[in-house]
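Students often ask why we bother predicting the structure of a whole assembly rather than each chain alone. The short answer is interfaces. A chain on its own may look different once its partners are present, and contacts between molecules only exist in the joint model. In this exercise we take four input lines together and write out one structure for the complete complex. Read the inputs first and try to guess which parts will touch.
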Amino acid sequence: MRITQEGDYALRVVLYLCKENMNEPKKSKIISEHEKIPLRFLLKLFRKLNKAGIIKSFRGAEGGYSIAKSPDKITLKDIIEAIDGPIFINRCIYDADFCNLNRTNTCDIHHALLKIQKRLVEDLENITIDNVIKGEVQF
Amino acid sequence: MRITQEGDYALRVVLYLCKENMNEPKKSKIISEHEKIPLRFLLKLFRKLNKAGIIKSFRGAEGGYSIAKSPDKITLKDIIEAIDGPIFINRCIYDADFCNLNRTNTCDIHHALLKIQKRLVEDLENITIDNVIKGEVQF
DNA sequence: ATAAACCATACTTAATTGGTATACATTGTT
DNA sequence: AACAATGTATACCAATTAAGTATGGTTTAT
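Now the answer. The structure tokens for the assembled complex follow.
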């Protein structure tokens, strides 16, 4: 039940770009140093965020990365799924062949886990980077 | 964001023992075959559930396993934590050294993840095996 | 006493995750 | 036009974690 290190990096990097909120793109080297993320790993990670439309990249000299949309339009779910793909808390939820025995299509455990998953995803959807910046996430 | 295969096995095995609800203990070999879980792996898994007080084991000939407490007193969280230990969705939550840079003690992302985790754990606590058996888990 | 069960520990293998390397494409500057 | 500074793409390697197996031991009903 962990988010990956890469997912964690992604959350922090997106938060950073949102906070910087600058006109000119930030260079990966700067971000790598600031967030203590291995440069190559960060570059790879950025490509995933780029594909997902969360950040924009600028190639060439004086290139870099900047945020692609408003922080209140970026949810934690968006970022985590951009990195790790769709969230499934159990294999049997995306592939019925894993539903231990192929019982009555979906077993009772399957149902329970699906409910847990649904609520988890909802929670992740309900927190935006804007919420995070403004300290609106209470617990 | 996955529960482990072992955790999944554990949920199914506990459900099975609760449903069987017999006086005499069930032998691991029978359970292994019924749930299609490798025998040795199952034995190891049962020891964890035993330590956590969820099931009881009986040694010697005619030994086996049976449920140790009422299904309405066993939550999904109990089972998953018995197998995998306490739930932390991110390393920085149990070990502040991982909180990327040691910024202002706990960073904004940390707060958000803690909230997500808290709700996840609550959800897992609120579903008992009894709920599962009775089909009370809707989604 | 014996056989059928579970217990404990250690080991091995497989899968996933994290990180690196190589070669390439783009773009601003000189 | 050449160059250097950037990002891109793919493939590879290493570390960690999860899954499964093996060996030898203990308990207990018969």
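Check your guess against this: Residues 27-29, 43-44, 46-47, 57-65 of chain B lie near DNA strand C (CB under 10 Å from a C1').
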